[in-house]
Amino acid sequence: MSETAPWLDDEEMTSWLSVIGVVMRLPSALDGQLRRDADLNYFEYGVLAALEHAEEQTMRMSDLAFVCNGSLSRLSHVARRLEGERLIARYACPTDGRSTLATLTDGGRERLATAAPGHVRLVRSLIFDELDRDEMRQLGDLAKRLLTRIQT
Amino acid sequence: MSETAPWLDDEEMTSWLSVIGVVMRLPSALDGQLRRDADLNYFEYGVLAALEHAEEQTMRMSDLAFVCNGSLSRLSHVARRLEGERLIARYACPTDGRSTLATLTDGGRERLATAAPGHVRLVRSLIFDELDRDEMRQLGDLAKRLLTRIQT
DNA sequence: TCCATTTCGTTGAAAGTTCAACAAATACTA
DNA sequence: TAGTATTTGTTGAACTTTCAACGAAATGGA
């Protein structure tokens, strides 16, 4: 990435603006519904949802941060808030003294149940109602390849 | 959007997780380079870039907010900062007393020139180096359709 | 073993964003 | 045209995220 790269041409720019438009606007669209329905933002929802799907409904903080696509610091602050609301609990990892394990509480499960139906409906209405199965698969495959690069 | 929607099946979920992964991680990847190279975040860069491409390098605040995919309030705060650094200037619109016009200054143009090469290189390395022309067109078309729904 | 390095998580402060309230100007309508 | 509603933009407070610094625990060589 050291040599001078050419600028984007018109066609590239058009595509890029659509992509970045989705990237910039989707989070606030999702946050809005979650805030109204369950007083959560998407990152908080993601934390609860990730824990629900995890074995024992428990994950290490750093793994949780990774699957939630956020920094460990961000997760740490959010975990403090969620713990304050008794939606998750944290305790020291018995096998690695550096690690902290986070687990979903009953309250967290309930809150997730409050948020989820509206969230799924919204995601359907914004994404899956617009794209058919094949298109969605294409989008997912392209996004997966980009994600590999971004995640470095 | 009122009836109970079915949950996402495995294939849908896999695609969705890739999409949301890009949505969540791309902004911080872009912010990092811009902060290092030119002490800007992506939203600020977008404001300067939008003005540069505008006629007279000038836009109404609310139009600017729209093309930058942000709220007017967010833009207003950012504009105050950018104006403080003399990267943009604001003045009342002569034809509509409610409106404010923002325009790029020489300093703003210079800052953009500092930021742009690295930014374009990064976007190329993350996006265009991974996808060929045809794939990028596909992605752009799919994203454009989603954007239409999200932008309501 | 000992020491340097890395990993893990938290913290407080700084920076940024959202939200609700507001004022000013324009547009609408009866 | 008077009164109401809408559009536009700003503001301050509350909230969230980032950044850099830190301590504790584990790892890896010499």
TrEMBL record, chains A, B:
Gene3D superfamilies: Winged helix-like DNA-binding domain superfamily/Winged helix DNA-binding domain. Residues 10-148 form the HTH marR-type domain. This is MarR family transcriptional regulator. Pfam families: MarR (PF01047). GO terms for biological process: response to stress. GO terms for molecular function: DNA-binding transcription factor activity. It comes from the Bacteria.
